[in-house]
Specification:
isomerase; 2 domains; 9 helices; 5-stranded mixed β-sheet; 10 strands; EC 5.3.4.1; Glutaredoxin; Thioredoxin-like_sf; single chain; endoplasmic reticulum; 245 residues
């Protein structure tokens, strides 16, 4: 009985996308959306895609074998594309390689599913580093704290204001793998929660320890750093004294 129910649930996902309008609506309806472009929806690659879809219930998966849809997105056959709203980016995975199975596809999605607020861990760290956004804002906090849901609500509201400019990241201080990040920012757990803003091209960063998170405080912190970096960029480069000699 349970296996029959499981099979029924698995067939609900991915959603079939038969035209461009359906595909566009599908992508725009989620922070992260995945589409598999398959000429043959019953192929081995499409079967692996369905398996992966069942393993990631919170990410919408769509499948299209429409030539018009494939052409519209400039995709080749047996390609999986991940679309994300936070930095208007797209990541592709070629499934023609026989080594690519449901496990590798699941890792590809987990690695690249950056959101309005992305939780930092060893897998999402790769996607964070590859993002086109040059500014990262970290909320370093204890997820177990009873204040965590309210902190996240405010942090997420602030993230909406900087969409496409700053990548907002949640870093749970309880994860052992995050200890080195605390060390990098010279923070102790007793100083948390803290905000850390980071400019990826030159590693310039500022850390702010706070009693509590507020939308205004996050805005002031972000705007101050962005203005500082803008002034630095606008500053004319000093010419060497011997340049004209």
């Amino acid at each position: 009985m349970s296996s029959a129910v499981g099979t029924a649930k698995a067939t609900e996902k991915p959603i079939l996308l038969n035209n461009i309008a359906d595909a566009e609506a599908f992508i725009s309806s989620a922070e992260v959306a995945v589409i598999g472009f398959f000429q043959d929806p019953q192929s081995l690659e499409a079967d692996q895609f369905r398996l992966a879809a069942g393993q990631i219930p919170e990410v919408p998966f769509g499948l299209s074998s429409s030539a018009a849809v494939v052409s519209h997105y400039g995709a080749s056959a047996n390609t999986v594309a991940l679309f994300r709203r936070v930095d208007s980016d797209r990541r592709d995975l070629d499934m023609n390689n026989r080594d690519v199975d449901a496990k590798k596809l699941t890792r590809f999605v987990r690695m690249n599913e950056l959101r309005l607020v992305t939780e930092y861990n060893p897998v999402t760290a790769i996607g964070v580093m590859q993002s086109s956004l040059q500014f990262n804002l970290l909320l370093i906090t204890d997820k177990i704290s009873p204040k965590h849901p309210e902190r996240m609500r405010k942090f997420r509201t602030a993230a909406e204001l900087y969409k496409g400019k700053i990548l907002f990241i949640l870093l749970d201080s309880n994860l052992k793998s995050n200890e080195r990040v605390l060390s990098y920012f010279q923070l102790k757990k007793s100083q948390l929660p803290a905000l850390a803003i980071f400019h990826t091209p030159d590693d310039e960063h500022v850390v702010l320890t706070v009693d509590e998170i507020s939308i205004e405080r996050v805005q002031d912190f972000c705007n101050g750093f962005l203005q500082k970096m803008q002034k630095k960029e606008d500053k004319p480069k000093e010419k060497p004294l011997n340049e004209e000699l």
